[in-house]
Design goal:
14 helices; alpha/beta; nine-stranded mixed β-sheet; binds cytidine-5'-triphosphate; six-stranded parallel β-sheet; single chain; globular; Rossmann fold; Dihydrodipicolinate Reductase, domain 2; about 450 residues; about 35% helix
Length: about 450
């Protein structure tokens, strides 16, 4: 029996895929089709795939050519599969000519002629609505957002809004955007709003954007009180709009895998989560300005709290904070959050330097994510018996904002109001912790 194997994403299955599968099947007696997993595609920079892996597998099965469908989930898997399934022929479209010659060592490699004039990319582009994105604010993060948005299909940044005319003009010129100093006018000329303005302005900008029926992505810290967070998510729900907190780590491939590995019990019961983040800054800067909601908590707590809440949930029973204050802002805060059967802590600095790693300790082992853990592209699962340790590597492309932009757009296009990677109740809980600190609830100065 001649066994043939082929691989692909098979998004929006089209005639080119069908022809390829038919030709591959004709090469032998048994055809195995490897369909890429969602995380594998995202990891290799293919961010715009429309159908999820289950839909794509079903579409391939429906062609009737595949005798077996497998999932391709890691780089180098083709060599493993060819040996594992005792494959005779590896077949792939001619757009890959030469790229898989290295597999000749394991089986025969055949490049099949590609069907001209059709591809998933073409179909995605044809059916694509191109949303006009407006950015509120023109600071550092807004500057990074523009190039990051270009790698994601379906949206184009067209406008920037800042009440300070000079800043808006300079930013607009640099990125080729239209500048606005009036929020109402800005809202009339965009479809989606990314809020990257100073912390204390988030609430009003988000609320007014929602009232103008715009989907919103809001930078961290989303808002600084539980009540405001609840109000905004309720408003978004009532108006059938997507509101997402731009907590970038939540959407990057490696962090998502840490959460699923922990939930699957790989380190046993989680007993402790320790997350740290410090970035030292020098005056004058808004991070050190108490009138602009500066301070280590407001700057850095959202990402550490995200890790704690994704791993331990929202049912904590108490928390306390230890802070070093300077000129009205916390330059360092250590927080401890206690759960019925676990404890968590975070250390945050803007005037104190700490090691910025994440350690998740369990009854069987622990996960170590080196600094800077919030830009996660590598982590290790470690055990008492070190021979069982396992390292995981991922890509973290560009500035990492592309993952949250992709998620936001995918929610809008697919009319999905909730994202499991960061649920509204988790954003509300993060705002609640920040508010407790602001209210000096269990805060000790050191
Ligand atoms: N293929 C083909 N003819 C086409 C499109 C794809 O023969 N017009 C083949 C590819 O060469 C590959 C398989 O179909 O062997 C699956 O490819 P995939 O990457 O899923 O398809 P594309 O349509 O090229 O997708 P994209 O545009 O996302 O790259």
């Amino acid at each position: 029996m001649v066994k043939v194997i082929t691989y692909g994403t098979y998004d929006l299955l089209h005639q080119g895929h069908i022809n390829l599968l038919r030709r591959a099947k004709e090469l032998g007696d048994y055809l195995i089709v490897g369909v890429t997993s969602d995380s594998f595609d995202r990891g290799r920079g293919k961010l715009n795939v429309r159908n999820n892996v289950l839909e794509r597998v079903e579409a391939v099965k429906a062609t009737g050519y595949a005798d077996e469908v497998i999932i391709e989930d890691y780089l180098g898997q083709k060599i493993d599969d060819i040996q594992k399934y005792d494959v005779d022929i590896f077949a792939i479209g001619s757009d890959w000519e030469g790229k898989f010659d290295y597999l000749n060592e394991y089986c025969k490699v055949v490049y099949l002629s590609r069907t001209e004039g059709i591809s998933s990319t073409m179909l995605r582009e044809e059916s694509q609505v191109n949303y006009r994105v407006g950015i509120v604010g023109s600071g550092r993060i807004a500057n990074r957002f523009v190039p990051e948005s270009k790698v994601v299909n379906g949206a184009e940044v067209t406008a920037v809004m800042n009440p300070d005319a000079n800043k808006t003009e300079a930013f607009a010129q640099m990125h080729g955007l239209k500048a606005y100093n009036d929020y109402d006018q800005f809202l009339q000329n965009v479809d989606l709003v990314y809020v990257a303005s100073p912390h204390l302005t988030h609430y009003d900008y988000v609320k007014n954007a929602l009232l103008a029926d715009k989907h919103v992505l809001c930078e961290i810290p989303f808002v600084l009180s539980k009540e405001q967070a609840l109000e905004l998510f309720t408003l978004a729900e009532e108006r059938n709009l997507v509101l997402l907190e731009a907590s970038k780590t939540a959407f990057c491939p490696a962090f998502g895998h840490i959460v699923t590995l922990v939930k699957s019990g790989i380190i046993g019961d989680v007993v402790d989560v320790k997350a740290s983040l410090s970035k030292q800054v020098l005056p004058p800067t808004r991070e050190l300005d108490s009138t602009q909601a500066g301070g280590a908590m407001n700057e850095h707590a959202p990402l550490c709290l995200l890790a704690i809440m994704k791993l331990l949930g929202l049912d904590w029973h108490d928390m306390n904070f230890h802070s070093r204050m300077e000129n009205g802002v916390d330059i360092y805060t250590k927080g401890v959050i206690n759960y019925p059967h676990a404890t968590a802590s975070f250390t945050l600095g803007i005037g104190v330097k700490t090691e910025g790693n994440l350690v998740v300790s369990g009854t069987k082992g622990y996960i170590y994510v080196p600094a800077p853990w919030w830009l996660t592209d590598f982590f290790e699962v470690r055990y008492e018996d070190q021979t069982k340790n396992k390292k995981y590597f991922y890509s973290y492309d560009g500035e990492g904002l592309r993952y949250e932009i992709q998620e936001w757009l995918s929610m809008i296009v697919n009319e999905r109001k909730i994202c499991y990677k960061l649920r509204p109740q988790e954003s509300v809980a993060i705002a609640e912790v920040i508010e407790k600190f602001k209210n000096h609830d269990n805060v000790t100065e050191i």
